[in-house]
């Protein structure tokens, strides 16, 4: 009776199958060790929560707020960028608060793209990166990050971006990047972004960088801000969120910073669509950004230790996995004996036989097939239990037909 053409363009949601099986297992009373969703489990630091409570008791904070964020919050994110990356930003024209990165990304794509436009998006990809383009009515052009053997070569990846840009007409309007990367954990150095800035200046393509895992670098690796490269502010913007480093996922506090034209477009479309975050949340987020980064370092260490426990455990049971240098994920090729199954079937098997929930790589695009993603959102004791469960699964081998 009714049609929804924009929704009809969306592909099936692969994770629904795992979510359905996970719910059924829990209803049966099974203890599922859940690495499926990247939902940070660490509590928000107490000073931030205390400030929220204090601000929420004041009636003047209960009214509609500013969709672009209160001035002090925008100033705080600009101060943080200057403090950490040496980037000067104007809080009035080069920063806008978003209701999490996901809202900001989807609305920016809606502002920037029309039917007939196209965007380049690397895969495997966080789903909103690809689906946001589809929802905007534009054409999605994917660029594989991975070499045929599953490795990552930044030079090869850059060459494929250039090739993908030149392969269509009209030329793609927007390039969406994200490093450190979800789901793969892949990282790049400053030289890669320098090449991207040069490419963008040469072609006029708009660059959008999702910097969601800015705070989670390990083993001496410091994630590189795209905006810290000379000329980056001329061609693009960067998204940052408090969800990971500050353990504030449910608070939905994010930002877009950088090029004033792009920030202005997002600010304008948001002014039609929302009234911003609840003001006490913005006040508490300002306190978080203006405080010391001790809580960020503590969160980083928790994920670092969890990564080591998981990777060491998987390698010990005969599942070869590399240590990611960043993010809160481990991107694992399927165990050798199970590779013909595919990622969705293996994830189903791990849940049914080992009570371990994983994210199938195919859910992040066709280039993710052959992998599963572990989110480091279980404590070390439960990670060790998951490794024991998976050891039994690997020992039993794949199911026979």
Structural key phrases:
401 residues, 3-stranded antiparallel sheet, 7-stranded mixed sheet, alpha/beta, globular, 14 helices, single chain
Helix content: 40-55%
Q: Could you tell me how far the N terminus lies from the C terminus, measured between alpha carbons in angstroms?
A: 43 Å
Q: How would the global form be characterised?
A: globular
Outline the low-pLDDT stretches: none
Tell how many strands the DSSP assignment holds: 12
Widest sheet: strand order? 2-8-7-6-5-3-4
pLDDT averaged over residues:
95
Structural class: alpha/beta
- Report strand %: 5-15%
Number of helices: 14
User: Which sheet architecture does the biggest sheet show?
Assistant: 7 strands, mixed
- Write down the secondary-structure element order: HHEHHEHEHEHEHEHEEHHHEHEEEH
Tell me the radius of gyration.
21 Å
Quick take:
This protein is of the alpha/beta class and 401 residues long.
What topology emerges from the helices and strands here?
Layout: H1 5-8, H2 15-27, E1 33-34, H3 46-56, H4 71-85, E2 95-98, H5 100-112, E3 118-123, H6 127-135, E4 139-144, H7 154-166, E5 174-177, H8 190-203, E6 206-210, H9 232-235, E7 236-241, E8 254-258, H10 260-273, H11 279-290, H12 294-316, E9 329-333, H13 343-354, E10 356-357, E11 359-360, E12 371-375, H14 380-396
Parallel strand pairs: 1-10, 3-4, 3-5, 5-6, 6-7
Antiparallel strand pairs: 2-8, 7-8, 9-12, 11-12
Helix pairs in contact: 2-13, 3-11, 4-11, 5-6, 5-10, 7-8, 12-14
């Amino acid at each position: 009776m009714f049609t929804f053409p924009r929704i009809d363009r969306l592909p099936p949601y692969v994770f629904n199958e795992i979510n359905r099986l996970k719910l059924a297992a829990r209803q049966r009373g099974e203890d599922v060790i859940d690495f499926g969703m990247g939902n940070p489990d660490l509590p928000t630091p107490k000073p931030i929560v205390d400030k929220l409570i204090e601000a929420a008791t004041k009636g003047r904070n209960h009214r509609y707020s500013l969709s672009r964020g209160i001035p002090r919050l925008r100033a705080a994110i600009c101060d943080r960028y200057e403090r950490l990356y040496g980037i000067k930003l104007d809080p009035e024209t080069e920063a806008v608060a978003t209701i999490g990165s996901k809202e900001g990304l989807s609305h920016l794509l809606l502002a920037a793209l029309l039917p007939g436009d196209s965007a380049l998006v690397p895969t495997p990809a966080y789903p909103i990166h690809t689906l946001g383009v589809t929802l905007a009515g534009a054409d999605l052009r994917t660029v594989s990050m991975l070499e045929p053997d599953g490795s990552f070569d930044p030079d090869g990846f850059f060459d494929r971006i250039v090739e993908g840009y030149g392969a269509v007409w009209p030329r793609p309007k927007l390039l969406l990047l994200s490093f450190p990367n979800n789901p793969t954990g892949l990282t790049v150095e400053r030289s890669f972004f320098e090449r991207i800035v040069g490419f963008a200046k040469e072609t006029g393509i708009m660059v959008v960088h999702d910097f969601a895992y800015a705070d989670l670098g390990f083993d001496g690796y410091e994630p590189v801000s795209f905006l810290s490269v000379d000329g980056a502010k001329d061609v693009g913007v960067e998204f940052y969120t408090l969800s990971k480093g500050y353990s504030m996922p449910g608070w939905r506090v994010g930002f877009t910073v950088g090029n004033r034209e792009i920030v202005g477009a997002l600010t304008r479309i948001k002014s039609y669509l929302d009234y911003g975050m609840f003001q006490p949340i913005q006040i508490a987020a300002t306190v978080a950004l203006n405080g010391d980064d001790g809580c960020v370092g503590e969160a980083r260490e928790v994920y670092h230790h969890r990564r080591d426990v998981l990777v060491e455990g998987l390698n010990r049971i005969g599942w070869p996995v590399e240590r990611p240098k960043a993010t809160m994920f481990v991107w694992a090729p399927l165990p050798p004996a199970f590779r013909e199954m595919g990622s969705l079937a293996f994830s189903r098997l791990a849940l049914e036989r080992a009570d371990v929930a994983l994210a199938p790589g195919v859910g992040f695009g066709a280039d993710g097939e052959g992998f599963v993603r572990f989110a480091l959102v279980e404590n070390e004791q439960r990670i060790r239990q998951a490794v024991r469960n998976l050891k039994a699964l690997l020992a039993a081998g794949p199911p026979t037909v």
